[in-house]
Amino acid sequence: MAKYTPHELAAQLKEGLLSFPVTAFTADLEVDEESYRRHLNWQARQGVAGLFAAGGTGEGFSLSPEENAFVARMAVEEAGDVVPVLGSAGGATYLAVANARAAQAAGCEGLLLLPPYLTECDQLGLEAHVDAVCSAVDIGVIVYNRANAIYRADTISRLAAKHENFIGFKDATGDIEAVTRVVATAGDRLFYLGGLPTAETFALPMLQLGMSTYSSAMYNFVPEFALEFYADVRRQDRIAVTEKLNRFVLPYLEIRDRVKGYGVSIVKGGLKAVGRDAGPVRPPLQDMTAQDIQDLSDLIDAAGIRPAEAPALASA
Ligand SMILES: O=C([O-])C(=O)C[C@H](O)[C@@H](O)C(=O)[O-]
What is the pTM assigned to this prediction? Predict the structure, then answer.
C-alpha cells in the first residue's frame, strides 16, 4: 500500500535531488542481492528526495520482468522507510504494464516509464502506451521523454487530463522548444525533471525551463558532491555551479565520452574507483577499462570529492 498519493509523491520529488542507483551484478552477470542491498542503504541515507530503482543507470532495460520486480522489492525493503522508492517499466506495452503492476505490488510509490525499444512510434501509439500503464496502476507514473518515446505537448496534456496518477515528465532530449511547449501547456499539473546524460551539466539552464530537479547518476559514487551541486543549482548560484562544472563535471564528461554506453558504465566505474564495487555492466554495454577507472579515480582525488568513508583505489 503506497504511503504517498500520486500528488503527494510529485510534491516530494520535485523539491530534492533524485537518486538513480545502479543495479549490482555478480561477475556472472546475475543480480547481486547483497551488494545491491548495501548500495541502496548507502544511497537512501544521504539526503535525496526519491530513489528510482532499475532506471537507465540501473540498467532496467537489461533486466527480465522477474529481475525488475525483484530489484523493486529489494529497493522498497532497503530504502522505503527513508525515501519514496519508484520502480521502472519498459519495453512493449504488455511488458510495461506487467512491470508497472509488479512495481506497485512490490510497494513502490511510483514508477518511471522508460521508452519502448527498437520500433519507431508516434503520438497515438505513445498515448495508448502511457494510457495502458496509467490505467494498470494507482501509483504515480512519470514518463521518460527519450529515444523513441518523444511526447508532444498536446499528448502530455491529454494524458494529464485523463489520468490523475500521471504526475511527471522527465526529459532527456534537451530540446528547449519542445520542453517549453510541454511545461507551458501542462503547467503545475505535472512536475518536471531533467534526465539528460550526466544531468548536472544541464541543471542550471533546465531549472529556468521549470525542471526543479534531475536524476543524478554521479550521486551513486560522489553523493556529497552531487548534493552540494544540487543545492548550488537551486540557489541559482552560477559561480558555484561553474566552479564545480570545471572542477569535476566537465573533465568527467571527457572520460564518459571515450566509449558509447559509458554514460552507464562510468557510474559502475566510479563505484569501483571509490571502493564500492557494484560489479560489471551487462552487454551490450561494456565495462570501463582499468585505465579509464584509474583516470576517473585520479579525477575524483584531484577534485577533492572522494566520499569520506571511501578508500582510495588500489593501484593497478
Ligand atoms: O534513468 C536514468 O538512470 C537516467 O535518468 C540517466 C541518468 O541518471 C542521467 O540523468 C545522468 O547520467 O545523470
Answer: 0.95
pLDDT by residue for the chain (316 residues), tens only, comes to 789 999 999 999 999 999 999 999 999 999 999 999 999 999 999 999 999 999 999 999 999 999 999 999 999 999 999 999 999 999 999 999 999 999 999 999 999 999 998 889 999 999 999 999 999 999 999 999 999 999 999 999 999 999 999 999 999 999 999 999 999 999 999 999 999 999 999 999 999 999 999 999 999 999 999 999 999 999 999 999 999 999 999 999 999 999 999 999 999 999 999 999 999 999 999 999 999 999 999 999 999 999 986 555 544 4
Ligand 1 atom nearest residue 197's Cα:
12
Angle at 304 between CA 281 and CA 219, to 5 degrees: 40
315, exposed or middle or buried, with CB in 10 Å at 0-12, 13-18, 19+? exposed
ipTM at complex level? 0.92
Out of 144, 214, 219, 230, pick the active-site residue. 144
Any domain includes 31: yes
Amino acid at 151: Y
What is d(CA 14, CA 181) in angstroms, rounded to the nearest whole number?
A: 19
CATH number for the domain harbouring residue 93:
3.20.20.70
Of these residues, 14, 36, 151, 170, which one is catalytic?
A: 170
Structural domain including 10 reads 6-235
For residue 78, tell me if it sits in a domain: yes
- Residue 144 designated active-site: yes
Domain tally for the chain? 1
List the beta bridge partners of residue 215: 18
**Atom 4 in ligand 1: residue holding the nearest Cα:** 56
What torsion do the CA atoms of 249, 200, 19, 99 make, to the nearest 10 degrees? -110
Is 32 within a domain? yes
Domain-embedded: residue 33: yes
